[in-house]
Every structure is written in C-alpha cells, then in structure tokens.
Amino acid sequence: MTDKASHRGLLLWLLLPGLLALGVSFVMPMLWLLRASFSTSAFGGPNGEWTLANYSTVIFDPFYWRVATNTLTYGLSVTFFAVLLSYPIALFLTRTTSRWRGLLTALAIAPLLTSGVVRTYGWMVILGDRGVINGSLQALALTDAPIRLANNFLGATIAMIEILMPYAILAILSGLGRLNAQLEEAAAMLGANRFKVFWRIILPLSLPGVLTAALLVFVLAISGFVTPRLMGGGRVFVLGTEVFSEATVTLNWPLAAALALLLLIIFSSVIILYRRALRALEA
C-alpha cells in the first residue's frame, strides 16, 4: 500500500510540469476565448458585460452560414483529393523494394521542410493568369484567354491539397506499415489476383491509417488561413479568414472569439466521428 501511494505520488510529481504547461498554454487561453465570445468589450476584456449578441450574429446572419458552408466544403474537398492522391504514393513507398526507397520517402515529405507561405506563393506563380499553366496552354494555342485558376476557390483548394499531401502520406504510410504481409501471401496462394488482394486485404486493413490521414488533413484545411487568403485573392471566405478579419481589420474580438469557438465545435464533432468510425473498423 505504501509502495502504491509512493508510486502514485511520484507519477503526480512527474505529471505536474506537463499539466502546468497545458493549463497555461491551452486551458487559460481557451477560457479567455470563451469569456471574450460573451463580452460586450471591443477587445473581449473581462470588464465588458455578458451578452449573447455575438453568437446571435453568427447564428442569424446568412453571411456566416455561407462562411461555415464554404469551410466545410473546402475542408471536405481538400481531404478527399489529398487522401486520394496520397494513397497510391504511400502504397508504392511501402511496397517498393528499390534501393532508392528511403530517398523517395524523403522526397515525398520534403515539402514539409518549406514554409506553407512559400509554397502558396509558388502556387500563385504557377496558377496565375501569366503563370506556367496558362502560359503553356496559350503557347500551345489551346486557349485564347487565361483560365481562372487563381484568386478563387479552385486555386485555394489545389494549393492546399499539395500543401497537406505530405501529412496524408505520412499517416497512410504508418497505417500500411502495420499490415501483415503473410495475409497477402495467403490470399495470393488461394488464387486471389492482385486486385482482389488489394480490395479485400490491403484496403480494408489500411482504413485506420486513411481515417487518420483524413482527420489530420481536414483539421489543418479548415483551420488554414494563409492559403485561402492568398490563393483566394480575398474572394474565398472561410472561418479561418473571417476570424483573422474580425480580429485585425474590424477589431471585433468578441465576434472573432465566437467564430473561433464555432471552428472548435466543428473540430470536436469531426474528432467524435473519427473515434466512432475507428471503433467500428476495429470491432
């Protein structure tokens, strides 16, 4: 009993620095954000009166419904295509026996070494009216006028897909790395062709990794600000850009806090769905 109490006390002391850091860096800012969202003070200070006006604005203003819809559409589009494009790359990197496998894996995740802002500016150059794609199409006489690939929802989606693909590749690689190769060999010995092995063995068993990739990409996509702002040219309105605008342009911090909490509610809902889907797969 004494040993157990001593062990428990030691664990609490070991946990204490982490709990303090978590409280200061996460819990206190979240409490301030919650208080600010109910405040009448312009900067969300505790001296303001309590009010539901900010949430009333978010709920009853059609503009914010469009922003929430845009955010979900943006997040789902980026997630779908990022996972769809990343899966074959991760599968190839898992299965290849090439001596360059390590180098290829490093190249697949190398974009993470570059800032997302830099890559966004790169996409502005590629997709712009005088960019590489439009320049090539016009040089080949395939189009007379530039195709609008930037300063809109499409450009913001394309750029964000490429920016988040390394995260999806890493998550799917982790899922594929846990597969038991003997199951595939057994299926092949029983007469299953490669497609059946993939469809009946590899794909179902890799779904936990795919779900993790989807969760990671979705959360990063809907919380993104720089890429929608720059690639959208001020025409793409998602929750990330609106929180920034309310906090820095109109200086309406309580409304920015209410929008940030709406984003947090979406995060929480997605995580709950992810946990349930993961539990269903493991059942």
TrEMBL record:
User: How does the protein's chain sit in the membrane according to the entry?
Assistant: Multi-pass membrane protein
Keyword terms? Cell membrane, Membrane, Transmembrane, Transmembrane helix, Transport
Checking PANTHER family in the record gives: ABC TRANSPORTER PERMEASE PROTEIN (PTHR42929:SF5), INNER MEMBRANE ABC TRANSPORTER PERMEASE PROTEIN YDCU-RELATED-RELATED (PTHR42929)
Under the heading Pfam families, the entry gives: BPD_transp_1
Q: What is this protein called?
A: ABC transporter permease
Q: Which SUPFAM superfamilies match?
A: MetI-like (SSF161098)
Please list every transmembrane segment annotated in the UniProt record, as residue ranges: 12-34, 72-93, 100-118, 153-176, 197-222, 253-274
Location in the cell reads:
Cell membrane
- Record's InterPro entries? MetI-like, MetI-like_sf
- DNA-binding: is it a keyword of this entry? no
What family does this belong to?
Belongs to the binding-protein-dependent transport system permease family. CysTW subfamily.
Residues annotated as domain ABC transmembrane type-1:
68-274
